[in-house]
Design goal:
mainly alpha
Amino acid sequence: MLKFILKRLGISVIILIFATFIIYVLECSLPTSYVERTARELATKPGSTKSAQQWIDELNAQYGMDKGIIPGYITWVGNSIRGNFGDSWNWTVPVTEEFNSTVWYSFVLGLIAFILEIIIAIPLGVAAARKQYSVTDYTVTVISLIGISMPTFFVATLLKLIFSVHLGWFELSGMQGRNYAALSDFGKLMDLANHMVLPVITLVLVSMGSLMRYTRTNMLEVLNADYIRTARAKGLPEGKVIGRHAFRNTLIPLVTVLGSSLPGLFAGALITETLFAIRGIGYASYHSMVNGDIPFTMFYLAFASILTLLGNLVADILYAVVDPRVRVN
């Protein structure tokens, strides 16, 4: 297992180098010079002692954009290894400071949605497979297909229209209510939780459909296996057949999917956070990209690449844990 993990880590490092190099090339090849625009904005601020050209030279030197692609990339990697990602042009604070102040909102939002997705989707997928072609199966299939088909912005808009505009149960957007400052610590926590309800429901609705279908498909395949028929022929109770034999083997492909989803908890839900104005990492990255914040955008894309590679590694390790045959091979 250790040899397998070390090998995968080595491959992941090579992939990460290529991925970050592509990100750097794309950011340096933007058709509009965001560096020039940022330099002009900095030069016109009150108290600025530098001209626009001086700011351009300084920013280009800071991020290695004045050295060419390869030397510039090496400069950026060197600074990144030391934890120096520069200052965010859009948020006017160090990139790591903005990241640390936003990522935990995304993590809490994603973790709650992830847990609810598992609690709802997997049992419904198993129930649909157990009662194939029944009312339960058709109902779960319709629900899952609706969830897969509906885009995030439509679900979010529909929820806000029903629960915010018509019923008035939740705020349209934001993370704080009108009387937030006057609340106690517990009241502030409950106010924040109230603002998280609709974003969590949105994430669950748009993501649980695919997990439902995946669970149902794999469960049906397992239920039709010979060893399941043998277990039933021996007179085992249906609960043991499903729980101990069928579902245990269904977990093997499910773990791969769920394991690769775990790092996404830190990546943020860009569309959902932006629609509900939740200041998570997805919201920050969206506005950074729109406003040409190259330092934060490069950091976020590199961070997302690392998460993807870690997700694949975690999925492979979990696969080997639940299926000993993988370790033998």
